[in-house]
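Fig. S4 source data, part A: sequence.
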Amino acid sequence: MTDLTQLRPRAEALVLKLKSKGLMMTAAESCTGGLVCALVTEIPGSSAVLDRGFVTYSNEAKMDMLAVPADVLARAGAVSEETARAMAEGALAHSRADVAVSITGIAGPGGGSTEKPVGLVHFAAAGKDRQTRHLACRFGDQGRDAIRALSAATALEILSNLID
């Protein structure tokens, strides 16, 4: 699924689910650069469920905006389970949202390594009074646009599952 227009029904379903439960969301995005929030805001009425979004592409932004600990970034790296968890929990703490999703990965075409190849994306979902969940996906090196679209689709699904 690399066509962003195919993601609109998923975003709409998420907005409706959040509205029905009276919940607000936030997103902490790195490799998707705000794509999840952009998809949600395409849906009329999304202002009732989207508090804010954080585009934290650099490590400095992750630390400044989300309070991701410097030692986590130094030890585990920006693309890691630890960072994804800290991003989601930081977004929740720095917003009025009830649930948060985070995305950090390597969209390519460069930047990958044997340990962390292009297409590796870590996600986390956090919620008030909920245990933070983590998911790692290896989408493969299928192009920057495809990896970003797949990441956005996965983030919408993770957030929807969190509030079920």
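Fig. S4 source data, part B ends here. The chain has one domain: 4-162.
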